[in-house]
Specification:
141 residues, alpha+beta, Aminopeptidase, 7 strands
Amino acid sequence: MLELKIADWNKAQGFVKPLRYQVFVIEQKVPEKMEWDEFDENAFHAILLKDEKVIGTGRLILDEPYAKIGRMAIDQLERKKSYGKKILDALIKKAKEKGAQKITLHAQVHAIPFYAQAGFEPTGPIFDEAGIEHVEMYLNI
């Protein structure tokens, strides 16, 4: 059974920290000090549970009239099952509810087609973030 929750950091961190650590720090070799930042405290965090196990997450930072999506992660054994789309859709919906007019994100280059399917458009050149190639993308809502 799937369950998707949107929560603040106080409620979300116990759920999402282990998954983010596994995906970003272990798998992608992002330095741990870069993974945890001051934005977590004020962000909305998506928590996707499958049979009560956390399998996905993402966060939404609001800076009216803009929003930024980031820290999208899916458990390695659960990828390619459209779970990322469920998380992305929930974060876009939350941004709309909060009055955001534009959402930006830094997409890893391999994920550009995933975000493009949701209507995000790339802007600017490819850049390095934590040793991984990214491109900024945006969605007007």
